[in-house]
From TrEMBL:
Pfam families membership: Phage_holin_4_1
Bilayer-crossing regions: 23-44
Organism: Flavonifractor plautii
Presence of keyword Membrane: yes
Membrane topology (UniProt): Multi-pass membrane protein
Localization per record: Membrane
Top-rank taxon: Bacteria
One annotated Gene Ontology cellular component of this protein: membrane
Protein name: Holin
Keyword RNA-binding assigned: no
Key words, A-Z: Membrane, Transmembrane, Transmembrane helix
Length: 131
């Protein structure tokens, strides 16, 4: 019973901070984690593993979730809308993380599926500066 209450409380906290705990949000979480892991793989591959660089990477990932949270708050309290800005922000960072994952995979020497490259190339023109 206590575990269920704790999970319910955590779910409510997540919804109030990040908006809907939907498939887009879970996709973003997965892509952020995968991007970080593939970035570590690149550092290992290049023999450049660094705790400072890793900490900087984690800070950038935290900033992504801060922006998703900010977008959700703006949606609810300033725009009076349901997750419009949050959805745009989340999709932007999903695409950004997906392209970074592909870059990382390429840097360790793995071939990239052409269909995936074609799909993600549509997002490149909207990304601006990613670094």
């Amino acid at each position: 019973m206590e575990t269920e209450m704790t999970l319910s409380w955590l779910s409510d906290l997540g919804k109030s901070v990040f908006g809907s705990m939907d498939g887009l949000f879970y996709t973003l979480v997965a892509f952020v984690v995968i991007d970080y892991i593939t970035g570590v793989c690149v550092a290992i591959h290049n023999k450049q593993l660094s705790s400072d660089v890793g900490a900087h990477g984690i800070a950038k990932k935290i900033a992504i979730f801060a922006l998703v949270s900010l977008s959700s708050v703006i949606d609810r309290f300033l725009l009076g809308s349901e997750d419009v800005l949050r959805t745009v922000t989340t999709v932007f960072y999903i695409a950004n993380e997906a392209m970074s994952i592909m870059e990382n995979v390429g840097k360790v020497g793995l071939p990239l599926p052409q269909k995936l490259q074609n799909f993600l190339s549509h997002f490149e023109k909207y990304q601006g500066s990613r670094k």
